[in-house]
Fold this protein.
Amino acid sequence: MHIIIINNAYGRFPSLQAMLTLYYNLTGWAEGVAAAGAQVTVFQRYQLDTDLEIANIPYHFITEHKPRQLTWQIPWRIIRRVRTLCQRHVQAGIPTVVHMNGFVFPIPTRVLRLMLPNSVPIVVQHHGERAMRSWKQRVQRAALRGLDGYLFAAKPMAQEWLDAGIIASSHDVYDVMEGSSLFTYQDRASARAITGLTGNPILFWAGNLDSNKDPLTILNGFERILPAYPDARLYMAYRYDSLLAEVQARIARSQALTQSVTLLGQLAREQIPDYFNSADFFVQGSAKEGSGLAVLDALTCGVVPVITDIPSFRVLTDNGRIGALWPVGDEERFVAALRHVLAQPVQAQSAAARQFFEQQWSFAAIGRRALQVYEMAWQRRQEKIAT
């Protein structure tokens, strides 16, 4: 089977390597699918035309609509090249599936469907997008309805799209995690020698300081466990900080938080693995997530997650078997979840997190699951044509 991955999303980068470093989930996904036994080709928008091979996978970087492509603009050069490749595969009898990244390119996706051979299915992958509103939703419904598969990190996340009629049937929805982590486990003492983090236990936050991540509930709950765990420390790394003033004010009102919470700000990408590996527990209060890439980073580093009970986090933690889940915005339940994990040996919890990641969320595991989905989508497409 041959899988063709199309990624229209693009921001201007100083170099191709810089883009590939940021888009590690694109390359990791492709390599995972290839390792599972498929041939893979990737088409990616970029500021220059260039072809190269990465891990024996051909990548075609194609310039479209410089300097920025709007979601309604049609990437004709990519579409034509994909069509030609698919036609060759069909003539050679090679089963082929096209994977479109993102629900936010409805018109290009519909044009692609019209131009491809009828036997070639298209699956589209969700990356945290919300359904469009008003007349745009009608366009999205007309363009995306009737495709061969819709990939979500967790099936319940598709409900919004089913309710809007953009996805016709839940039978077309597949659960495949959108990404993984390239981090690796390090010895805690070695990592802490690099970062300088201290505390017993060490809690780590990696996420924006915004209402969706809910840092204030985290701070309120953390303050309440400090009498029983006076040596506990919370370190908060973040990029966007719309609630920074509120967070600083909350910390300043509490002597305990002032002594126990450190705002790290934005960390360089190369620093982040050392900080994860310095921590015992990972905390986050998200109301919604497309998947939970920071949680994946935590799991591969053996950091025990204490995170909200939302669809993608349920999947990532095996319904809370790894770490603990608590209802969004519920300070009482967050405190109870913290106390639950703190009462258990952290080494055993850490080992369980790492093992679960390798079994379920490594790129190799995701690639195997993705290939199963591609095969099902291809088979259903052939049955649909036959009838």
